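Q: What changes when magnesium ion is included in the input?
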Amino acid sequence: QRDFERRFNIPHITDIFPDADPIPSTFCLKMRTPVMEDFAGGYPSDEEWHGYINKNDRVLLKVIHYSSPTSAGAECIDPNCTWVEQWVHRAGPREKIYFKPEEVKAAIVTCGGLCPGLNDVIRQIVITLEIYGVKKIVGIPFGYRGFSDEGLSEMPLSRKVVQNVHLSGGSLLGVSRGGPSVSDIVDSMEERGINMLFVLGGNGTHAGANAIHNECRRRRMRVAVVGVPKTIDNDILMMDKTFGFDTAVEEAQRAINSAYIEAHSAYHGIGIVKLMGRNSGFIAMHASLASGQIDICLIPEVPFHLHGPLGVLRHLKFLIETKGSAVLCVAEGAGQNFLGRTNATDASGNTVLGDFGVHIQQETKKYFKEIGVHADVKYIDPTYMIRACRANASDGILCTVLGQNAVHGAFAGYSGITVGICNTHYVYFPIPEVISYPRAVDPNSRMWHRCLTSTGQPDFV
Ligand code: ATP
Ligand code: MG
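A: The predicted holo structure follows.
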């Protein structure tokens, strides 16, 4: 069963510069000096005691032991194995660092769409860099585009500049899709003398960050490229959650509540709320669970019929007849099979999805008209209102710790990594591991079944 043990390796500067000499950390840990009772065995001397993270510290990815494969259900990777051991590098400040702060020029870039908490992460990266003693910190405006577009000059950052940026949503630096090639970005980094790059973005941005890391290695540049995963959809593999998700669920509830009030106050009212989730229905599922006001939750991972005796529309009729009103929540990626495939792509090459929210709204109106039953259908799409929010308290904390750990990771000499939270511990992952495919809601998981229990919806197939 040892086959099920797996460790993640993360790239380190000594992989290409074996002789790279570390220096003592300039990040001062203000930890309580231990007392004798803290140690069962030998008491460390003042020189030995520091409280920094050891490079061999590891976090266990899976912390559950199933007593049988049947109780593991879909949660177990292998049906013949009731446990899986996966270890991840623990994040945090190291005693020895591989960059002299006075030689560092750090850059921060934010790409893709907006997500609550971007400013919190930017702010914390800047603050932590300054604590290490870094003087040259810049923001690259409007995503990777800022590396190539003439007329977009880098933004000097300091604690003073970022002090209050977390009080508003959006990104201080601006975001964009598309932009220059990886080799143009690395050319620009060389030209500007950037040797630490912090990249805030989703799967596309991280694919870019990993390519930048590889290109820097190919050119034998002493550079650290560290990502902070930004996905409001919470669709990054292996992480407990990503920043912005909590805020999104909280804000989504407001939209659901409005839809509920509209539906409830109308004669035969039906409220439809479209939420984010291109590939994964985490926001829709969690907002349904949190609000307790959803009768039907539709997500991309779970197929359903609209028409027919087992379809969504027939169930809506049943709800109208029995409860007088109904509220639906649909993830944006749900029901794509009902829409004509568009071949359109955005500037980054992502497929543009059809709008299922509008489609189901029209189909619902049409259906009730056909069967001669009055229905008052209201449609709410709160996407942009949610994305532009400032982070809530729990996301604020997550962003702060991720930002700090991104800087600790860069100073520790790691590159091509991203930061995350696993089983409540903060960790570093190799980028390719977490972006190989989007994390999805498992239709066989306990959480989806809890959601179905709370909405009371049947199977629509
Ligand atoms: P979101 O979750 O908001 O979509 P994202 O990071 O996935 O965030 P994208 O628009 O897909 O957003 O990509 C952001 C940036 O990353 C763009 O500038 C794009 O050019 C670049 N990018 C995307 N995929 C790759 C790739 N495979 N290699 C290099 N760069 C990439
Ligand atoms: Mg993406």
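Observations recorded in class: The chain has a mean pLDDT of 92.
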